[in-house]
Every structure is written in structure tokens, then in C-alpha cells.
Amino acid sequence: MTRCPPHTTDTVTLDAAQPDLPPDEAAEATPRIEAIQRLKARRNAVILAHNYMAPAIYRHVADITGDSLALARRAAESDADVIVMAGVHFMAETAKLLNPERPVLMPDTNAGCSLAESITPADVRALRAQYPGVPVVTYVNTSAAVKAETDVCCTSGNAETVVEALDSDRVIFLPDRFLAAHVAGRVSKEVIRWEGRCEVHDRFTGPQIRGYRAAFDDLTVLAHPECPPDVLAEADCVGSTAQMIDYVHRERPVRALMVTECSMSDNVAAEARDTEFLRPCTLCPHMKRITLDNIEAALTNMEPTVEVDPAVAEGARAAVDRMLAIGR
Questions:
Q1: What letter does residue 275 receive in the DSSP assignment?
Q2: Rg of the chain's alpha carbons, rounded to an integer?
Q3: Which of 189, 227, 236, 269 is the most buried (most CB within 10 A)?
């Protein structure tokens, strides 16, 4: 297992002219895509699409693509009047934290996250009481209310840097147990873990990956650190979604297996045409709640909007800002 090199860009440059939708899907999607493009122009809206979005959204209506934090930061740099989050609820909250004056539309407010839902603000307060004085590092894949209870946020790409920067020989790391274990193996501090998990990445297994390797001797395996340790042990590159995308574009492997949400391989394959992608297809049911239909409806009705209580927002924003002060 090796760590993927730091990513060089937050987003992928898309070539929408490249065909990537089957003809029947393209015929059905085209009227919706055209309607969304008209609505974006009328509303001066920007659509943020996470790397796990379906290709019709990711490649044909998104203006900014990338990891959750990168989406919010790029939105803050735009001159859009309206922000649409094609992702899950905690991502829309993060976009609101960094863009407090602009409406943030969430096409389906029930698009949640098993990892974010694995911990509550009360859980964080209980951990602080159990480990007084130990700093709390919180993965960005959490609610704003949880972020507000913690000291500093991190991403899957900068978690080790953030942990090492803290002036303490122990840290509490929330909420993903596998990302925490990965970080613990690469830093000089004791890492106290929470037992949260991502229901998508938790499904992969080491024997499954070894089976793919046995079938394809030229296979490059790229895995997200939310995967179990036996999966990461089989990987050639462990990193965030942005780091994996960068790796494929830079190294141009003959055959690749991205051990993460299935749609990401579809999206990268549309650009990295020289690489054959194997797809152990594990879909995120929460991400798939976002559709062209509900994006169009959100822009038409200017709802649902995501709001963050100002008291919560202040603490959550401070945790994100502390991370950004340490480094991306």
C-alpha cells in the first residue's frame, strides 16, 4: 500500500462533447439537461457535483466537480447568486458555511450519509468528558452541529497533516473507524477512534480485491481510506477521490480498479479513455437520491434550501478555518 500523491487540482476538467451516456439514457436525459441549463442561466446558479454523482449530472449539468470541501470552496470563489448541491446533506451544510449570504439548494433533503449520521454533538461532548484536554479532529463528512463541537476538521486527503500539526500526543478522531485506523498507522500520535463507517466503503473486502488481482496481472488498485484495512493493504494507491482521479490522469494505468462508489469510475472513465476500469459496483443510495428531475425542481421553485443555525455555523466554520490554516 502506498499513499496517493497530493492532488494538484480540486476539480476535473470535463469535455462534455465526449459521449458517455447510452443512447436511450441520453434521449431521456437531454430535455432535462437543457431545462436545467436554461434555469441556471436565469437564476445565475452554479451546480456543485460530488465525484459520486451519476454521469448525466456530473458531466452535463455540473459547473464544479470534486470532493465535498473543494466544492464549497470553489463555490465561494464564484459570482453565482444561487448554489445547488448535487451531493448529500452535510455537503450542502458545508457549502452554506462557506457561502452564508447565498441560498444553497438541496434537491433532496433526505440525501443523508451513514457516516455523518453515526455521531451526534452529544457523542462529541461525552468524548470530551471522557478524555479531557484531548483535541478533537473531525472528518468533513459530518454535520455542521458535530463540526461545531470539535477543534478542527480534516479531509481524507489532509487528515495526517492535520493530526500531526496538533500540539498533543493524543487526538480524538471522528467519526470513521477505518480512516482513523489508516491515519493512526501513519502518524506519531495515539489516535482515539469512533466506530462510525461509510456503508459503501465498508462493503469491500480484501479477498474481493485479491480476486481481481489474480484475474488481471496488470491491475492498478486505488482505494479510499474509508475502506477496511485489508482492502487498503491490497491497494497501490490510497487517497481521497481527488487524489485517485489525479493518479489516473497522471499515471495512465492500463487497467484500474477504483475501490469507492461506482459512479466515480464511470465519470473518470469518460475522461481517461486509455484506461480500462473494472467496476465492483457499489452505489451510494444517498447520492443517488439526487436526480436531474429534482435538480430542475429545486431551481424552478428555489427550494428546498439548507440553513445552518448561526450559533452552530460560527463554531463549525471555525473548525473548518483551523484546518485551512494548517493546510489543504
A1: S
A2: 19
A3: 227
| Per-residue pLDDT reduced to its tens digit, 82-122 | 999 999 999 999 999 999 999 999 999 999 999 999 999 99
pLDDT in tens, 140-156: 999 999 999 999 999 99
What pLDDT is attached to residue 18?
Answer: 43
Question: Domains of the chain by range and CATH?
Answer: 23-112+287-301 (3.40.50.10800), 116-196 (3.40.50.10800), 201-278 (3.40.50.10800)
Residue 48 pLDDT greater than 80, yes or no: yes
Helix, strand, coil: what percent of the chain each, to 5? Answer: 45, 15, 40
Q: How does residue 292 score in pLDDT terms, banded at 50, 70 and 90?
A: very high
User: Do the beta carbons of residue 57 and residue 71 sit within 8 Å?
Assistant: no
Q: In what order do the strands lie in the sheet with 45-50?
A: 64-66, 45-50, 82-86, 104-105
First to last CA, the chain: 23
Beta strands 82-86 and 45-50 are parallel
Mean residue pLDDT of the chain comes to 91
d(CA 110, CA 326): 33
Look-up of cell digits 436545467: 36
- State whether residue 255 is helix, strand or coil: strand
Q: E strands, the chain, where?
A: 45-50, 64-66, 82-86, 104-105, 136-139, 152-154, 170-174, 190-193, 219-223, 237-238, 255-259, 276-278
Amino acid at 307: E
Q: Are 146 and 159 in contact (CB under 8 A)?
A: no
